[in-house]
Amino acid sequence: MQRVYDFLKKCKTYYLATVDGDQPRVRPFGTVAIFEDKLYIQTARSKDVSKQIKANPKIEICGMTGGKWIRVEAIAVEDNRIEAEQHMLDEYPTLKERYQAGDGNNQVLYLKDATATIYSFEDDPVVIKF
After folding, report:
1. Which long-range contacts (CB under 8 A, 24 or more apart) does 53-57 make?
2. Whether 40 contacts 88, CB under 8 Å
3. 94: which residues sit within 8 A by CB, 6+ positions away?
4. pLDDT (tens digit, 9 = 90+) per residue, 3-56?
5. List of domains in the chain
6. Where are the beta strands (DSSP E) in 30-125?
7. Whether pTM exceeds 0.85
8. Hey, is 119 helix, strand or coil?
9. Do 122 and 84 touch, CB atoms closer than 8 A?
10. In this structure, how many other beta carbons lie within 10 angstroms of the beta carbon of residue 61?
11. 67-87 confidence digits (pLDDT tens)
């Protein structure tokens, strides 16, 4: 999991895919943190992405850096605890301009049953499950 975290941090921006009915939806994301041995992402409950994840928690993440790319398949699980929300805000202080832990809009989710694959044109794929 640490390798996946490090890769996504290097990407700075990665792309998160959800399903909206029968239509895929992809958007840029930038938050990633490790909290209590789980990999977390952050969004707002008011956004469509949050509603899509609630309806179907299966997500995919894709990012690229240094000539390699990663795909992560996972189930996004909401963590309503103030401690988890605060941890993400502490990792990304600029989020504090828009969110507060426990404000009802800040949403953190951890990745469950995740399979990450790191690809390149030169090396065999590396598969990481967590």
Report:
1. 53/18, 53/78, 53/109, 54/78, 55/19, 56/18, 56/19
2. yes
3. none
4. 999 999 999 999 999 999 999 999 999 999 999 999 999 999 999 999 999 999
5. 2-129 (2.30.110.10)
6. 33-35, 38-44, 58-65, 68-79, 106-120
7. yes
8. strand
9. no
10. 25
11. 999 999 999 999 999 999 999
